Write the C-alpha cells for this entry.
Amino acid sequence: MECNSITLKGIVRDCNPNMGGIQKVWMILKSDITKVTVGVDETSSTNPDVQLITELTVAEGQKKVNAFEFRKGAASMTSNLQKDDTNGSYFWLTDLVMNFQGMETSKRAAIMALTLAEACAIVLDANGVYWFLGKDEYLAATAGTGETGTAKTDANKYSVTLQDSSLELPYEIKKETAEAIVKPAPGA
C-alpha cells in the first residue's frame, strides 16, 4: 500500500450535547465470542457510511455476560495513540478504569477474577453509546488498588484498570447488536 493512499475525511462541528463518563460495563470471556463483524449500519440515515460493529456473537449456551456497575463518575475509558515513525509502529492503548466503592470480599473475588481473565468489554457511555474493547486482543489488567482511605470522607474502594491494545480506536457497537447481548432474557 502506498503511504500516500490515505484519504482524509473532515469532521463537522458537532452542536449536540455531550456528557463524559460510563454508565455500565459488561465483561465477556474472549473465548466465548465467536464472531465480531465490522460493517456499515444500513439502517442509519445520519451516518450511512460509518463503520461500526454490526454483529457480535457469543457462543450459544455460554451467554456469560457479567455486568459491572458503579456510582456515577466512577469509571472512564481513555484511548491514547502510541506511534513511532522510525520503527513504523502504530497502535492505540485504551484504558478502562473502574472504581467500586466499599471494600468487601465479594468485590475482591470479582476483581481478582477480572485481573486474571482473558476478557472483552462492552462499555455503555454516558451518552447511551455502546463501545467494544478487545477486538484484536483480550483486555489486560495493568493497575489495581484497594484502599480504606484515611479521613471519614476518603474513598473506601477498589479500583482496576484494564487495557486494550489495538490497531484502531474502539469501535462503536450498533445499539441493537449490543442490547441483544447485554439485556437479560425475559424471565431470567
User: Anything to note?
Assistant: The mean pLDDT is 89. The chain has two helices and eleven strands. The CA atoms of residues 94 and 158 lie 20 Å apart.
